[in-house]
Specification:
globular; 5-stranded mixed sheet
């Protein structure tokens, strides 16, 4: 019997070793905390999990790490039932990508960090999960963007008329104010932007979409975060 079992076990071990190491990882993404990963040939997908409560407005952001050779990052998200609710692999190509969604059920969401279908690059990246604040009427925010915080994000209620005011109040680095639709099969689609000048208020009115989450982002490009000294304050208000 031993003579039969040993070759069988050896064959099974060889078969398992030959399987492509495409999906690895396993780290839990805690809200607000960055996790660093590394995409390599043979391991171009890293899978993470995030625990969300029904009603959470969740944003998953992936960005190329400083000095990394990884370009054109991409994400996909599966809900606790195993259904894919966002996948940007065939969407836009960028050093920074995010998906945002409202958690429809409490449980474990699987996040796959990978690269665009158009990219063959490898390297390190940063990934995080955020539970976004929704800007209801009358909300006023004072916040700071630095090289440690990277971009900051807020969500707008769906299917509403919204008026926002934004002003950079301090800092030598001029931030960008951007509004995106988070499109599940594409990624962030920018619909408005403005370069900030200290002390000058920028205002915008829009009707948010019922199908996509509308996301407000204040920050700058990945290159600026890598090579510039970013430390600027701003005020954002929903009127």
């Amino acid at each position: 019997m031993k003579r039969i079992l040993m070759p069988v076990v050896l064959v099974l071990v060889m078969l398992l070793a030959a399987l492509p190491a495409q999906a690895q990882g396993g780290a839990v993404l805690e809200y607000g905390q960055f996790v660093q990963g590394d995409l390599k040939e043979g391991a171009i997908e890293l899978v993470y999990t995030v625990e969300a409560t029904e009603g959470d407005v969740v944003l998953i952001e992936m960005r190329r790490a400083p000095d990394s050779d990884l370009f054109s990052v991409a994400l996909s998200v599966d809900d606790p039932s195993g259904d894919t609710i966002a996948d940007t692999v065939e969407g836009n190509s960028s050093d920074v990508s995010f998906v945002a969604f409202i958690a429809e059920q409490t449980g474990t969401y699987a996040v796959t960090a990978t690269r665009s279908q158009f990219s063959s690059s490898t390297g390190t990246f940063l990934i995080r999960a955020l539970n976004l604040e929704v800007l209801e009427a009358g909300t006023a925010i004072n916040n700071t963007v630095t090289n440690e915080t990277y971009d900051v994000y807020y969500a707008l209620p769906q299917d509403e008329e919204v008026s926002l005011s934004y002003v950079q109040t301090d800092g030598q680095f001029f931030l960008s104010f951007r509004i995106y639709y988070s499109v599940p099969d594409f990624g962030p689609a920018q619909v408005a932007s403005a370069g900030a000048i200290e002390g000058i208020t920028w205002r915008v009115s829009l009707e948010t979409d019922d199908d996509f989450l509308t996301i407000v982002s204040i920050g700058t490009t990945a290159i600026n975060f890598e090579f510039s000294d970013v430390d600027s304050n701003f005020e954002l208000a929903r009127e």
